[in-house]
Amino acid sequence: MARAAEAEVWQAMSALVLDHDRKQEVVDALGMSFFRVKALRRIAAVGPLPMTELVSVLGTDRAYVTLVVDDLEERGYVVRTTNPDDRRAKIVTITAEGRKAARRAETILKRPPAALRDLSDADLRELSRLLSLLRR
Predict the structure, then answer these.
(1) Using an 8 Å Cβ cutoff, are 78 and 72 in contact?
(2) What pLDDT, in 10s, does the model give residues 15-58?
(3) What is the CATH number of domain 21-135?
(4) What is the pTM of this model?
């Protein structure tokens, strides 16, 4: 019985964390795929990245990342420059407009879902306690 409850709790946690409605809200707000938003947020968080590193971080192939960066560049969110250490390689850097879009996405994604906002203070404390146990 306890193992069935374990799976049920994991499914509920996954649904809450992955919150596809929130992802859709970001997609609608920025007018681009969530994968492009993910790339933009990553560049905003870590600073200029070589294309090869962005490919690795995003876990997809080089050709697709090139298409994503092309689109972000067309939107004015990033610029590509030549890597001074390897003229064959490119570095992707966020622009002021890109930083603004990434902050907008972060604002949406960091807003707690209604399910959490509706919990009492006591329930939130208990949930926090339980999550602390899980992080050990």
Answers:
(1) yes
(2) 887 777 889 999 999 999 999 999 999 999 999 999 999 999 99
(3) 1.10.10.10
(4) 0.82
Q: Can you give the chain as a three-state secondary structure string?
A: CHHHHHHHHHHHHHHHHHCHHHHHHHHHHHCCCHHHHHHHHHHHHHCCEEHHHHHHHHCCCHHHHHHHHHHHHHCCCEEEEEECCEEEEEEEEECHHHHHHHHHHHHHHHCCCHHHHCCCHHHHHHHHHHHHHHHC
Please name the residue that has the structure tokens 């879009």.
101
131: tokens are: 């999550």
Q: Are 108 and 28 in contact (CB under 8 A)?
A: no
**What tens digit of pLDDT does each residue of 107-116 get?**
999 988 888 8
- Angle of helix 34-46 versus helix 20-30 axis, rounded to 10: 80
Half-sphere exposure of 42 (CA within 13 A, CB side): 21
With tokens 């990553």, the residue in question is 42
